[in-house]
Structures are given as C-alpha cells and as structure tokens.
What does this fold into?
Amino acid sequence: MESFVYNANPGRVIFGHGAVAKLEEEAERLSAERVLVLSTPEQADQAEIIARHLGARLAGIYPKATMHTPTEVTVEALQIVERLRADAVVSIGGGSTTGLGKAIAFRTDLPQIVVPTTYAGSEATPILGETENGRKVTKSDPRILPEVIIYDVDLTMTLPVSLSVTSGINAIAHAVEALYSRDANPIISLVAEEGITSLARALTLIRDDAQNKNARAAALYGAWLCGVCLGSVGMALHHKLCHTLGGMFNLPHAPMHTALLPHAVAYNRDAAPEAMKRISRALGSDDAAVGLYDLASGLGASMSLQSLGMPEVGVGAAIEQAMANPYWNPRPLEKDALTGLLARAYRGERPASA
Ligand code: NAD
It folds into this structure.
C-alpha cells in the first residue's frame, strides 16, 4: 500500500426521517439561545415552519440567501445578526443558503447547524465560495465548517426530479474527483465509492417515483458521503473547469457539473486507472465516463453546455483562462485535448468508450 495522509473533519451528523424535530436539542447542545434561521426567498415558508422546532431559542428569520453568496447579502445578514444578538445560525436549504451561513460564521465564528434540502454537499466542507464585484472567490477555513448537520429525509421530498438529478450528479462529481485526487487516501476512496453507488441507484428510483422515501434516504446519505469527499481532499480538472465556466458565463451550477463530468472523466481515463475501476463498479458500467453520461442522460439531464447558455466562442476563451491558472490534475493540462473535451461537452456528445 502506498503512504497517505488522512485528515478527518470534526462534525456531528443527525440523519433520519423527521430529524429536524431535534433542532432545539441541537441548539441547546451548542448553548445557543438566540438562533437566526436562514433560507432563500423560495424556501421562506418552509423555513418558517421548521423554525418553530427551535421554540423560544428562535431569534429571527433572514430569508434572502442568494446563489453564489454575494457579499452584499452577507453584509445585510450580519447587521441582522448584530441587531438580534444572534449566537448561532441555522441554514435551511441548498448550497446557496449554506453558503450564507458559512459567510456569517467565517466573519463571526458563530456555530452553524445546517439542514440540507438538496444534494450539493456544501454542509460537509470547510469551503466557502462568495461573490464580490462579480468575482467568485473561494476560501477554506475551520470556522467555515458547520458544527452540526441535520439530514431530514422528509425535507427533500419536495425537491423536483430535475433538480434532484443535477444536484445528485453534482455530488457524484465530488466523489469522482476524490478518487483521483492528489490527496486521495483509502478512507476517502471507500466513502467516495459508496457515495456514488448510493446516489446513482437512488436517482434512478427517484426519476420513476419522486415520493420513494427509501430512495430519497439513500440519495441524501450518498450526498453526505460525497460532501465528505469534497471537504477532505483536493479536487482537480472537473471542479476547476466548472469554476471557470460558472464565473465566465454564469451557467447554472449543478446542471453545468452534470454536463461536463463525463468529459472530464474521459480526459483523465488513462491517467487514473484505479479511480476509473471504482467509478465503473459503483455505476455498474464497463467505462466510467460513458457510465456517467448514460446515467445522467437516462435521468433526463441536459447534456450540452450549449443548452445551458454557454456561447460557442466561449470554448476557446475558457480553455485560455483554465490554462492561465495551472492546477494539479492526474493528466497534465494539454491545450488541444482540453479544447476537444470542452467542445464535446458544449455539443453534449456521448464520450467514446475506452
Ligand atoms: P441552491 O441552494 O441554489 O437551490 C436551488 C433552488 O432550489 C433554490 O431556489 C432553493 O430554494 C430550492 N430548493 C432547495 N431545496 C429544495 C427542496 N427540497 N424543495 C424545493 N425547492 C428546493 O442550489 P444547490 O445546487 O444546492 O447549491 C448551489 C450553490 O452551492 C452554488 O453556489 C455552489 O457554488 C454552492 N456549493 C458550495 C459547496 C461548498 O463546499 N462550498 C459545495 C457544493 C455547492
């Protein structure tokens, strides 16, 4: 066995149907008496209902979390934190709401409880991406890692199938890149393979019946495992390209991950054979890249970046930008091959098998 380094992130996870009823108990464990609840405007009603579980510990609700965590929203939320003398935040929603909770915690060191309702996985990471003057900047800090995650399967039942699919494949992308990460280690590889297996099976069942509670539980469990991967080891080509494309063309986060992932995996195929074996096994496919493409397209996802709003001239510009900021990847970054990769993702082609 090769030598490795494994860093475990601290954290407490409560998982189950109806688990959000433990909210007050968890706030009490953190000695939090004045809790500020966060949500997006779309989930304000849901947040209000869930917030009742905090009882007298509820200080207020701020329902203005926004995609990509713009700092002007954080500044306003911090004023509410101060006015209410909040001593903890509870983020109810997807990665956008979790992002606001993290941005507050980074600046105040307040404890966070996250109640995830998508499969994004942000709740399990010490990473925050926030946008200032149109630029998304990513930082990592122990203060950003949430203290408690409450996974309540029942709260994911309303996630529409199309969002479940792209959010789930976004999570799978974390596990895929963890398997060929520079920091890959045996523990995280176990977690990654189990995460992909659980999510891939569950998403197919959810496509057929969005109200399948066992499938919803398996998807949320898989999403947690994939989030742990993202929070534990460095990512590579796929995440860096998504960061570039998201910033340049403001493409929707999870659908963009879904369309690009099979092509990034095909690019790395020969450089990471062990990772490919595990991904293929998790998908029950002969080839990792083709298996990911067939899974996502079979679930009804849009497989072309063109359909998500990327301009064709963007292919060359994005590769220029990606090459300008070199980063580690199992296969070196080669301009012509990368241009081919992105052109195929732009058109939504099925990758050629090995
Ligand atoms: P999102 O949080 O933007 O949610 C998408 C929409 O779905 C929102 O309107 C939300 O209110 C709604 N929604 C959420 N759960 C729902 C439910 N159960 N039923 C009905 N509607 C629901 O989307 P996302 O994909 O979860 O998060 C994307 C953001 O998270 C991006 O900004 C991305 O950069 C960030 N992210 C960060 C990390 C990290 O570790 N820092 C990891 C993954 C994603």
